[in-house]
Sequence to fold (118 residues):
Amino acid sequence: QVQLVESGGGLVQAGDSLRLSCAASGRTFSRPIMAWFRQAPGLERKFVAGINWRQGNRNYADSVKGRFTISRDNAKNTVYLQMNSLKPEDTAVYYCTAGAVFGSWDSWGQGTQVTVSS
Fold:
């Protein structure tokens, strides 16, 4: 099992930047795929960005391409989500997740709120 703790959320204005962190502990070697999802009020949780730390592959939702960057510090077992040019529609609770393969998410963090004002 992997434990995940997110941090870095907050209230910002449109156009600002924010960096989220997700610290992983436990059997992280068995969960090489890590990703960020987000959930706005009344909507389903949606994929934002993912990274395979063994292969270095990254992928993004179309809505964040060019603005968000996912990265990982293997020494710290921490995944980051750098969010630039934030928009009000980016407002959501952001969740970190991990899995053995893409799409098989079996560990989730508690979430961190990101609010972007116009």
